[in-house]
Amino acid sequence: MDSPHTLKGTDRYGAGHANWRTITRRIAAPFGLCLAGLTLSGCPPSNSRSPTLIANSVAEFSSVQGHLNWQYGFYPGPFSPGHFQLMPQFSAGTWWFDEASSYALLQAANIHSNGTTTSGSAHPKEIWAVRRWIAETTGLVRITGVLRKANGSPLSNGVVARMFVGSNEVWFAFIEGTDTIGLTFEVITTVIAGASVDFALDPHLSHDWADDTVFTILIEKM
After folding, report:
1. Pairing relationship of beta strands 128-134 and 183-191 according to DSSP bridges
2. Is residue 76 reached through a cis peptide bond, with omega within 30 degrees of 0 on the bond before it?
3. CB–CB of 133/69 below 8 Å?
4. pTM for the full model?
5. CA atoms within 13 A on the CB side of 89
6. Number of helices (H) and strands (E), helices first, in the chain?
């Protein structure tokens, strides 16, 4: 049953969830989650202390798995947090699933997955690249970021960015393959210390041509 504060719908970029909609690119959530500018049950009062930055995916990028609570990995299918695995290769500022046979990679700001429709020496296997943060706090956090294509080639059919808190998908957004302007996003949700928060790139329809994408994240404690 829907909560009294459930908002439904999607915007033209496809951002949404079963009970979500995008309002001026900010994401409203059901069941007591909060949207900046609205007062919902369970949200902190407007005069609460300023949020504290606790994670920055670009500034904290590392060649060491787990450094500052960041991990760099992939979903091999099924495409869900329970199947997350660490990427085994790092070279020249890039984490790879397999540099010789796959486009699945993670860099400080960029991400690229592999699809069954691929090119070059890459094997036709769907692999989602995933940036994972392990929560260092319990309570409300605000997650903001940027999603845009780094490669605006019309050969790309677009990508879908997805966010999972624990095993639950809490946000997703589709952008066109030529969209190098993209969008900003904001999600306010509750995390538990030690739980995973995953930021995954779905190669839309398993087609990875020209899918290099900027997907950056800031996390603040409320």
Report:
1. unpaired
2. no
3. yes
4. 0.80
5. 13
6. 0, 16
